[in-house]
C-alpha cells in the first residue's frame, strides 16, 4: 500500500466563508485526483493570529491571502518575490521545505490576463477605485500594459483623487474604470461606488474585482449605458492557477 503524501493549503482572511478559493481548490483536487491535498479557510480576526495558524497546521505547503491582510501579512514573511516587493502586497505564500514563508503576488497576473482581451486602441487610461492591497496588483498590471492610471479614494491625498472630482471630463479622459474596493460584494449587493454613471459609454470598460454577485450594481449601471463589463471571476481563476504552480515548483 502506497502512503498518500498529505499536503494542506488554505486561505487567510477575515469573514471569508463566502470565499471562492476553498470551493475552487477542493473541486480541483477532486477532479484532478490530487490525493492527500486539502484546502481550508483560516478566518482570523486580526493578522497577529497568523503565526499561530502556520505553527498549528502541520503539512501546510501554501496559502492564499485575501482582504484585509494582503499588506499586513508582509512583516510575518521571511522573503518576497521581486514582483511582490515592487507591488507591496501579497496574495500567495509558499512554505518551503525548510519552513520559510515566501510571499508572491498573483493578483496582478490574473487581472492582466483577464483584462487584455477587452482592450482596444481607444482604451488609453484607467481609474482605479480604491487604494488597498487589491488595487496595488491592478496598478502593477496596468504599468506592464503601459496604461496610465489614477487612484480614487474617499478622501483626496497625494496619491489619489476623491469621488467628488469625477465628472463628464473624467470619463472622457479615462476609458477604463476598475472597482478594486469591496463595495457591492455579497451580501451587501445594493451598494455601489458613488460615480456619475450617466457618463459611461460604449467606449468604456467597467471592471469589477468582485465576483459575487456576478453582476454588481457597479457593473449593471455601467452596462445600462453601453459599457463593456467584466467581473473578477476569470482573474481569480488565473491567479489561483498561478498560485498552484508556485506552490508546486
TrEMBL record:
CDD domains: NAD_bind_Shikimate_DH. Residues 11-93 form the Shikimate dehydrogenase substrate binding N-terminal domain. The keyword 4Fe-4S does not apply. GO terms for molecular function: NADP binding; shikimate 3-dehydrogenase (NADP+) activity. GO terms for cellular component: cytosol. GO terms for biological process: aromatic amino acid family biosynthetic process; chorismate biosynthetic process; shikimate metabolic process. Pathway: Metabolic intermediate biosynthesis; chorismate biosynthesis; chorismate from D-erythrose 4-phosphate and phosphoenolpyruvate: step 4/7. The keyword Oxidoreductase applies. It comes from the Bacteria. Keywords: Amino-acid biosynthesis, Aromatic amino acid biosynthesis, Oxidoreductase. This is Shikimate dehydrogenase. It comes from Flavobacterium omnivorum.
